[in-house]
Amino acid sequence: AQSVTQPDARVTVSEGASLQLRCKYSYSGTPYLFWYVQYPRQGLQLLLKYYSGDPVVQGVNGFEAEFSKSNSSFHLRKASVHWSDSAVYFCVLSLDTNAYKVIFGKGTHLHVLP
Amino acid sequence: EAAVTQSPRSKVAVTGGKVTLSCHQTNNHDYMYWYRQDTGHGLRLIHYSYVADSTEKGDIPDGYKASRPSQENFSLILELASLSQTAVYFCASMENTEVFFGKGTRLTVV
């Protein structure tokens, strides 16, 4: 069965520190992978997406993610976080063979200490 | 930029009452979804639709109905609201595997 696992429910880092949020997926076909961010009382906004090609994809606000087929992972990174990055981050998998199916991780709540 | 608009943004409903949540999208996407978000569960799919006048059950459809009267509009209906349906509800549309979300409706059933 297809799944997305975000092993860290909460991550706390200090402002200016580097960040990695982990995401592992399970899917035997071609994955389409996304990271979304949810600010308080807001909907989910797209940070970045991976379809194919270069495994490192750049997103908004200095975020990037690296796809690894061998590790079935799609980790999100940022070199230097800002307090405004505090939010919930969702890793999302879309399936190529079943267009309606979108699978969400449970989210990682990032808290940036000023 | 895809636009998905939900109304109302928040609502308080009484147990046993009927609730209708509305969603409107302006980019002519075929797929539309209703999700609910609860702490610790992420987003769970309630109903979805890929064409007007047709809806499909998602992963947690019990206690919910959906209606897609047109390409642009997709409603979620709680015929008999219950306390357990207190949650934040998100409407979304999809194009080419990318999902566009509304800002959510916070529903409190009392």
Please provide a written account of the structure:
Chain A is an all-beta fold and 114 residues long. Chain A has no helices and 12 strands. The model of chain A has no long low-confidence stretch (mean pLDDT 93). Chain B is mainly β and 110 residues long. Helices cover 0% and strands 56% of the residues of chain B. Chain B has strands at 4-7, 10-13, 19-25, 31-38, 42-51, 54-57, 65-67, 75-78, 87-95, 98-101, 105-109. In chain B, the strands form 2 sheets. In chain B, strands 2, 4, 5, 6, 9, 10 and 11 form a 7-stranded mixed beta sheet that branches. In chain B, strands 1-3-8-7 form a 4-stranded antiparallel beta sheet, with no helix packed on it. In chain B, a hairpin with a 3-residue loop joins β4 and β5. Chain B starts with a strand and ends with a strand. The mean pLDDT of chain B is 93. At the A-B interface, β5, β6 and β10 of A face β5 and β10 of B.
Give a short overview.
The complex is a heterodimer of chains A (114) and B (110). Chain A has no helices and 12 strands. In chain A, 0% of the residues lie in helices and 54% in strands.
What is the overall pLDDT average of chain A?
Answer: 93
- Secondary-structure-derived class of chain A: mainly beta
Largest interface: A-B, 23 and 22 residues
What would you call the quaternary organization? heterodimer
Sketch the topology of chain B as an H/E string, one letter per element: EEEEEEEEEEE
Report, as a whole number of angstroms, the end-to-end distance of chain B: 37 Å
Number of extended strands of chain A: 12
Helix content of chain A: under 10%
What is the SS-derived class of chain B? mainly beta
Spans of chain B of at least 5 consecutive residues whose pLDDT stays below 50 are: none
Largest sheet of chain A: 6 strands, mixed
Along the chain, the helix and strand elements of chain A come as EEEEEEEEEEEE
Helix content of chain B: under 10%
Number of helices of chain A: 0
Share in β-strands of chain B: over 45%
CA-atom Rg of chain B in angstroms: 13 Å
Largest sheet of chain B: 7 strands, mixed
